[in-house]
Design a protein that fits this description.
This protein is of the alpha/beta class and 481 residues long. The protein has three domains: 93 residues, Orthogonal Bundle (Arc Repressor Mutant, subunit A), CATH 1.10.10.10; 239 residues, Type I PLP-dependent aspartate aminotransferase-like (Major domain) (Aspartate Aminotransferase, domain 2, 3-Layer(aba) Sandwich); 104 residues, Aspartate Aminotransferase, domain 1 (Alpha-Beta Complex). Strand 1 and strand 2 form a beta hairpin. The protein binds pyridoxal-5'-phosphate. The site of pyridoxal-5'-phosphate has 14 residues, from helix 8.
């Protein structure tokens, strides 16, 4: 092997940056010190330079880049002042252990990669990750690939990587009043995977399961595909009424529901009904499957406690997902299992897809541990609230009964008397607003006509404009009769 080749190999093995690659980034003249600082920030934020890594001595870097040494020293000082690096006297300059969030200069790497066309405004379930979030994830993925977790190379725990389970347990304790041991937390590929594993582990075919009517169609279709007897229980302004469920199927084996924010109608399960549901479940040994899919997005009032938090009998199985809170493509969610079912569920998980992808789990664990998730949620909540307001305002001209949601990432616009939601949907779509038909989410209760419209992942101006166009079109056709 010749010398040049072995130097090259070493360079890749140690992953140290090629400092001469900075040369084309720096302008030939003008503010080179600022450009150097900006480029070093970018390398640190995108984790090409890792926490704890040593930067070259200022004299050496200045020589390589044909810069005045003072310019490099000044750039390092500025980076230290901004918290990107730490200077250890007599030892050199090192990338800080915790890098602050900041504006990153857009280089080729920071630019958005070409991807699939964005979804039409109004489409349900569009992720909430902004450029700052993507940048943090990009850096963490790069690092996870450089130093993969053990489970990436060997078989792992069917419940998932313990680091992420620990973070989720802490997060749920702090935000949802849920006290769960790490051993009760199972990482899943989202809610759908959790429902499938849990239903197959705990509910033999022909078990009966109450569901809200209307309900999340993916869940109903899944339960039916597993041979479960779906028992629709109508919802009113207080949510699902256990008395109606008891009248229909008193000894059902389970109930699946969305107590914090009923999907799709948006009401909250009242406290008397929560207590009645827990009583019923305790009495007949039924499982309560609580789908808490969007509670991270509460816009007004205090956060609502989860049903799990008031369950003293261990009947509630709590489900959460990163699909709404971050991005559905991550395929990450979690279940909090009562201790007595952990073994059965773990065995079913092992038979299903064995265990989750540890690389993605490692990334998410650090995303939570380093505070990126909390910061992401703060930004996303603000953006989603603005998008919600723009959507509501945009729809104002249409004769629709819009309920402004205090939580979540979608709203329901009820159709005027006599109108069919299929017609409304076609009109909205013709003007670029995506919707789901409310009527198709009803099971046995008389179907109400309306549109279910998502507002996550869209700029307020974009969704507002699409809503205005759709509203004008709907108003005009309703006026014509
Ligand atoms: C009621 C409900 N639960 C859960 C989810 C999330 O599903 P998953 O985590 O499988 O992406 C959704 C997404 O649309 C939903 O509407």
């Amino acid at each position: 092997m010749d010398r040049g080749r072995s130097t090259d190999l070493r360079k890749h093995q140690t992953n140290s940056p090629d400092w001469s690659a900075l040369i084309p980034v720096l302008p030939a003249e003008g503010p080179r010190r600022a450009a150097l600082r900006a480029e070093l920030c970018r390398l640190i934020e995108t984790r090409v330079l890792l926490p704890g890594q040593k930067l070259p001595p200022s004299r050496e870097l200045a020589q390589r880049l044909a810069l005045a040494r003072g310019a490099v020293v000044a750039a390092y000082e500025q980076l230290a002042a901004d918290g990107y690096v730490e200077t250890r006297i007599g030892a050199g300059t090192y990338v800080a252990a915790r890098v602050p969030e900041g504006a990153v200069p857009r280089g080729a790497e920071g630019a958005a990669a070409p991807g699939p066309p964005p979804p039409a405004p109004g489409k349900l379930g569009s992720g909430t990750a902004d450029e700052t979030t993507l940048r943090a994830l990009r850096g963490l993925f790069r690092e996870a690939l450089t130093r993969p977790p053990a489970g990436f190379l060997h078989y792992g725990d069917p419940l998932g990587e313990v680091a992420l389970r620990r973070e989720i347990a802490a997060y749920l304790r702090a935000t949802r009043g849920i006290r769960a041991e790490v051993d009760q937390v199972m990482i899943t590929a989202g809610t759908q995977s959790a429902l499938s594993i849990i239903a197959r582990a705990l509910l033999p075919p022909e078990s009966r399961i109450w569901v809200e009517d209307p309900c999340y169609p993916q869940a109903v279709a899944l339960f039916r595909s597993l041979g479960l007897g779906v028992v629709p229980v109508p919802v009113d302004r207080d949510g699902l009424d256990p008395a109606t469920g008891i009248a229909a199927a008193p000894r059902a084996e389970a109930v699946y529901l969305t107590p914090s924010h009923q999907f799709p109608l948006g009401m909250t399960l009242s406290m008397p009904r929560r207590l009645a549901l827990l009583d019923w479940a305790r009495g007949c040994g039924a499982w309560i499957i609580e789908d808490d899919y969007d509670s991270e997005f509460r816009f007004t009032g205090p956060p609502l406690a989860a049903l799990h938090g008031i369950d003293r009998a261990g009947r509630v199985i709590y489900l959460g997902t990163f699909s709404k809170a971050l991005a559905p493509g991550l395929r990450l969610g979690y279940a909090v299992l009562p201790p007595e079912v952990v073994d059965a569920v773990r065995r079913m998980r092992d038979l299903t897809d064995r265990y989750p992808n540890p690389l993605i789990e490692a990334v998410l664990a650090r995303f939570l541990a380093e505070g990126h998730y909390a910061a992401h949620l703060r930004r996303a909540r603000k953006r989603c609230r603005m998008a919600r307001d723009a959507l509501v305002e945009g729809l104002a001209a249409a004769p629709l009964g819009v309920t402004v949601p205090e939580q979540g990432l979608h709203l329901v616009a009820l159709a005027p008397a006599g109108a069919q939601d299929g017609d409304l949907q076609r009109r909205a779509q013709a003007r670029g607003l995506a919707t789901r038909r409310l009527s198709e989410m009803f099971i046995a209760a008389p179907a109400r006509q309306g549109l279910v419209i998502g507002f996550s992942g869209f700029a307020p101006a974009e969704i507002g404009a699409a809503a205005r166009r759709a509203a004008a079109m709907i108003a005009a056709s309703e006026a014509r009769g």
